Structure formats: C-alpha cells, structure tokens
Amino acid sequence: MKFRKLLLLTLVLSLWGGTMLFADSASQKVRVIVNGGELDDAGIFTDGKTYLSARQVANSLQALVNWDDSSRKVTIYKPNVHMFLFQDSTIFGNVTKGNKITFKVFAQIDNLLTDISAVKVSIADPSGDEQTIQSKSVSIDKDNFWYRTDDYTYTFDKAGKYTINFYMKLAGSDDWKIVSEKTITAKS
C-alpha cells in the first residue's frame, strides 16, 4: 500500500516537473530595451512571437494608454510635443549654476488623437525633486494646439541636468502621463 502511494506520488511529481520544464521552454522571458533603458516588466517569447506589456512600452515612449474594458482593447496614443524655453524673447537651454531665472515654456502639440482633460508642466532638479510650473484643465476639439505657461521664476541651485516635463491627463482619468521632456543644463 505504501509502495503504491509512493509510486503514485513519484508519478505525479514527475509529470508536474516535466510540464513545468515544457512550459518554461515553450515561453521564454526576454529582456526589452527601449531607447537604452531596460523595461522592468520583461517580455515573453513564445511561438515565434514576442509579447510586451503595453503600459511599459507606452511609458517608455512617453505615450498615453487607454484601456477600453467593454471591447477589451488597448490603444496607445503618442502626441508630438515640442517645447521651447524662453527667457524674455531668447530661447535657452543652458544656465549657470546659482542663477535665478524667470522663464516661460511654450509647447506645440500635434497628432493628438484622443481627448484630454488637462495639461501640466513641471521642472525636476538633478536629484529628481519636482515642482509644478503650471497645470490647466483643457477642452481641445482638434488634434493640435499651443500651450504657454505664465512666467516662472526658478533658481538653479545645483550643477547638472534639470528636466522640464510636459504631462497630459486623458479625459475620464485621474492619472498624469508624461508625454515630453526638455533638458536644461546648469553649469558651474
């Protein structure tokens, strides 16, 4: 009796182990690199196809993701956002560390193929501390528009890269999604 139980247990464990080995060989995890950065949620390669997380890819490409539960459809939108930084009427991208500068951000947005409810512009210092420059609710009924912030005064205390971030909020969503970045370099 004990021998039968031991034989049955050995058979079950062997089948289970073989199934796991087959499943592992049938689908393999793959590393996914987008613009030089590796995605946290790796892709899966199975049956000659690679499957990726739509949200991870969209975040890497700075795109908007919309999930429609009723149709079980994911749609990724990548608007073109071009930002220009003006100090008075002069475009700039580099500053001297310690300078206090008043500037405004102009953004040209096109290829916007979905409805949004708000935009936000922020600045992040080299250590990643972020401050909102301006946010605004919008109701845009076209695929392109311009956005300009009010004058904003900021002191570039540290040497390094400062990032101007442009965010959008999809209509009906509470999540801000970054869709563009612009870098300012503060030199010593």
UniProtKB/TrEMBL annotation:
Keywords: Signal. Residues 34-111 form the Copper amine oxidase-like N-terminal domain. The keyword Transferase does not apply. Residues 1-23 form the signal peptide. InterPro entries: Cu_amine_oxidase-like_N, Mao_N_sf. The keyword Signal applies. Pfam families: Cu_amine_oxidN1. This is Copper amine oxidase-like protein. It comes from Paenibacillus taihuensis.
